[in-house]
Amino acid sequence: MPKIIVLPHPLLCPQGAQFEVNVGENLLACLLRQGIAIEHACEFQVACGTCHVYLRKGYDSILLPSPVEEAVLDQVWGLEPDSRLSCNVRIGQADLTVEIPKYSRNQ
Ligand code: FES
């Protein structure tokens, strides 16, 4: 089973987190299930950008962003090359290291 490592975030996950998931699961759903209350204003519709995360490791193990995701990513705070919308990420075979941005689009 792949593992998700969440780097510490001062509000949402102060100690960081580490947990196992199944291949094919939705990353945002996994984070929420672990009690990491990342914003998701559009409820998994790939429209709001509030579920933005950085995939510091494992980026290459998942499918590339869709054109719709890329268009929304262009609007997020702090866009970086390993930015993704967690609601549009299906877990692959490899472990993922996730960093939650300091700010979301709503702040
Ligand atoms: S929850 Fe809105 S883009 Fe992911």
Sheet bearing the most strands, described?
5 strands, mixed
**SS summary, helix count:** 2
CATH superfamily: Beta-grasp domain
Q: What number of structural domains do the residues give?
A: 1
Radius of gyration: 12 Å
Small molecules (ligands, ions, cofactors) in the structure:
FE2/S2 (inorganic) cluster
The overall pLDDT average reads 95
Strand content: 15-25%
Q: Taking strands numbered 1, 2, ... along the chain, how are they ordered across the largest sheet?
A: 2-1-5-3-4
Describe this structure in words.
The chain is of the alpha+beta class and 107 residues long. Helices cover 13% and strands 20% of the residues. The protein contains two helices and five strands; from the N terminus they run ββαβαββ. It has helices spanning 27-33, 67-73; strands spanning 3-6, 17-20, 52-57, 83-85, 96-99. A five-stranded mixed sheet has the order 2-1-5-3-4. It is globular, with a radius of gyration of 12 Å. Bound molecules: FE2/S2 (inorganic) cluster. Residues 40-42, 44-51, 72, 85, 87 line the site of FE2/S2 (inorganic) cluster.
